[in-house]
Amino acid sequence: MKTARSVFLLVFASVILGSCNKWSNGVTISETRQVDETFRIIELRDNVNVTLLHADANHPAGTIEIQTGEKLMDGISTETMEVEETEALEPMKFTKLVIRNDNTLSHFRPYDYDISMTVYYDSLYQIIFNSNGILHTDTLRGVAIRETDTVVRRICAIKIEGGSGELYVKLSCEKTTTKYQEGTATVNLSGETTFAHTSASYNCHGQIHAKDLNSHIHYIKPFYSNSLIDAQAYYMLDVENGNIGVIRYLRYRTTIETHPWNETLHQFDTIIEPVQCPRVIRYNGTSYNTWTYDNSIPGLQYFDP
Amino acid sequence: MKLKKAHITLWVLVLLCGSLKVKAQDYPWVSNNNIMVEARAHYSVFWHHHFEMQRFNAFYPAFEASIYQNTFGRNEWETLYNYPYIGVTFYHANYGLNFQNDPHIGEVLGSVFALYPFVNYPLIGSENSQLTFKLGVGLGFLTKRFDPIENNYNYAIGSHFNAAVNLSFEYRQRLTKRLMSVASLGLTHFSNGATVLPNYGLNTFSGAWGLAYYLRTPRVNLTLSKRPEYYPFEFDNKRWFSIDLAYGIGFKDVSKLYGGSATHFRVHEFSSYFMVPFSLRSSAGLGFTLALDLSDQRRPNHYVDDEGHIHVIVDIRDNDGHLIGKDDRIVKPIQMTKPNLSVCYSLSMTRLSYLFEFGWHLRVFEVTDLSKGNIYQKVSLRYQFSDNLFTQLALTTHFGQADYLCFGLGYRFNEKYYLNLFRHENSTKRLPPGVRKRHSGLL
Description:
The structure holds two protein chains of two kinds.
Chain A: H1 2-20, E1 28-34, E2 39-46, E3 49-54, E4 63-69, E5 76-85, E6 92-101, E7 116-121, E8 126-131, E9 134-140, E10 143-146, E11 152-162, E12 166-180, E13 186-200, E14 208-223, E15 228-231, E16 236-241, E17 246-249, H2 263-269, E18 279-281, E19 290-291
Parallel strand pairs in A: 2-6, 2-8, 3-7, 3-9, 8-11, 9-12, 11-12, 12-13, 13-14, 14-15, 14-16, 15-17, 16-18, 17-19
Antiparallel strand pairs in A: 1-4, 4-7, 5-6, 10-11
Chain B: H1 2-24, H2 28-32, E1 35-46, E2 59-70, H3 76-80, E3 85-94, H4 103-109, E4 111-125, E5 129-142, E6 161-174, E7 179-191, E8 202-214, E9 238-253, H5 255-258, E10 264-277, E11 282-293, E12 302-304, E13 310-317, E14 323-331, H6 333-336, E15 338-349, E16 352-361, E17 375-384, E18 389-398, E19 401-418, H7 421-428
Antiparallel strand pairs in B: 1-2, 1-8, 2-3, 3-4, 4-5, 5-6, 6-7, 7-8, 9-10, 9-19, 10-11, 11-15, 12-13, 13-14, 15-16, 16-17, 17-18, 18-19
């Protein structure tokens, strides 16, 4: 009994005292690292807050500035690897930058610590997000990908594989694909794109706010999420809602803006008429399709189906 | 502020104990049953068992108040279990307290109120100083739950009402004749048994300390030496085994996850168990179960056509395992039924018993959905109405992730047999009643 009592009291004291006097993460320090500047894919894991900025004269591509506690710094991993992109017409090889927090025993550290990182890039094709951190970007212009024999588009892809963080992504490219596979992260898209293709699986419980993403055509399919997406399109909104998720969408704007993009846009110019509303295709997979309107956003008109 | 609140709560409960002391003189029920009251303060850490819930990692204060009986051997099983404590606990924690800088996160989990009955088993030690294990299962109310639009970050909990489970090791030290100090390390778990999805559940590990107080002078424990000894299962070389047959039904709401017009799907479960007791408390054996979870028709790759037929989209692969196409097949309910095989262990306290199973889903049909895994665990709480009739509440899980909760009724066939007839014959010079001479060996 004495041994059992001693062990119990030792563990009990460790838990209580350990909770009160947690390991310190040390003073906040900065560190600059240099990785392969040719990376076109970035993968975020764990709980690192990342800001993506275009490289400039002072910050060449591949420069990473990290700010966190000195005892955590060694556990922050920034490694690059070669991967193959298979969705293009011809398989392409890219360099991928993977950012992780390999520090362990998080329950013995203060919970309110912060790992912040600024990554300078040349151009970016894909963001893979599996993180509980926050991602901010400046304007992403994508990478030219040959999709067919005649069509080459500047494409930017966002893939959410998990996590409950937040993404604030600004875009200026011809095609944007957002593939939401799993998690509760909130995706905020803004900027301009010709084609937007957003899909969400059953395991997507996060929200996608794309009302500030000015797109000509926005395919939202398949949308098996039970959560929310805000979207808008100038010409066509093609929606396939297979679940109880809420899709809020904005009305076609009467002013057609000119975009300095290539021939793929002109193909659509020939068939687009100044209609009063976008073409909306409702997929009636279930009787639970819900369409709501957010009238709280000033200056925007809404279409009533 | 939090500590101040904890102190106030603790002292109010201690004072309440003091006032009950006076009142208890008037209530024979209190003195006859060794009634105790207890107040305890927890220092809990939220344990994220899913990556998406890592953002809620924090320390939370929690409080509990209990009233219970320290058994003293009035019934034989109390002596067998070394005089356990039996009672009920009220538990409260606020999961939003540590997010005051970010009210949005603080509002995701809300707070919890729970009421759960428990049994606290002394493991080692004496009446003055003992190590115990507390097992409590009851009902919890969480103020916040998952909502796909309003509260999508909280996909740990899909309903307001949940099962509350407490498992903790306690060290109880008697300070005076009637006052005890209680320190504990334990796990508190909330989930709804997958009756409403999503349901990953909330787990908190905590260290707690409190005071327990006997409302009247504790009674002297009755020992086995003061009782006749019973060996019902091995008297006269006689042994028992039992065959249990049970049917259970459960309900699952998957509409928030998978949509669809139907909100609740039934789960049917036919179980059979072969159990052999090996002590007065324990028995072990094998189980075979047929389980039909009708909510599987709403899982990805399944759909229901206009005529009500259930379809499943099956991957077609070549010999090398490469995907070469997909096939749309109509599935009958019998093809969705999962046959299960399990090994079982039962721990009984007279009419109440726990049944623990560790089992495997057997794939008989190609279209049977085994996406949750081939291995499952099941915990059942049983109450025996009579020697044969029983009712049970059974939770099936896949490594901690609840699958379904079933309420069932069953019938037990008790059979006796003789382990070694020759030994019995030699020792008693006569055959057991009902056994003829021509039999030999095991029956």
